[in-house]
Amino acid sequence: MKPTSFFIRFIETPKARVGLRPDRIVETDVFEGQELNIEDVKEIIAAIGVLVEGEMMPQLIVAGPLSGPDLPAMRFLAIKDSSPFAIAEAYVITSLSQKIIARFYLNFNKPGRPTKTFSDESEALLWLKEQVQLFNAIKK
C-alpha cells in the first residue's frame, strides 16, 4: 500500500483507501482481509465521486491479501451504471482465491465497462492508459 503522501488527495473508508494519483488514475487499496458488501462498495464509489469531482477516470483496484467483494457486491459492480466515474477498472490481485473469484466475476457477471485482472501493477497501469486513449478516441 502506498503512503498517503503519494496521492494528490485521498479518502479512507473502514475497508479501503481511495486516492487520486498524480497520473490521474484513481487507486483503491482494499485493506487486507476485508470482504466488501454492497454498502462498502457504494461507500467507495461515493468517495471516488468526491475525489474526481464527477469526472470519469481509470480505476486501479489493489486488493489486499484475502480481500474482495461478496457475491451481491460482485453483481452490483458488474452493472454499468454502478460505477459512473470509471473509464475502465484494473484489479491487481495476488492470491489464488482472488484469481478464482475474479475469473468468476469476469465470466459470469460481465462487467459493464472494460475490466481486467493483473498480478502486476505496472501491467495494470499500462492497460489503463491504453483504455483512456481508446475512451478519448471514441469520445471525439
The stretches of 5 or more residues where confidence is low (pLDDT under 50) are none
Order of helices and strands: EEEEHEEHEHEH
Number of helices in the DSSP assignment: 4
**Shape summary:** globular
Number of strands: 8
Q: Per CATH, what is the topology?
A: Transcription Regulator spoIIAA
What percentage of residues falls in helices of 4 or more residues?
40-55%
Please describe the biggest sheet, giving its number of strands, its sense, and whether it closes into a barrel.
6 strands, mixed
Strand content: 25-35%
Q: What average pLDDT do the residues reach? A: 92
N-end to C-end Cα span: 36 Å
Q: Can you identify the CATH class?
A: Alpha Beta
Strand order of the largest sheet: 1-2-3-5-7-8
The secondary structure category is: alpha/beta
**What does the radius of gyration come to?**
14 Å
Number of domain units: 1
Q: Give the second-level CATH assignment, the architecture.
A: 2-Layer Sandwich
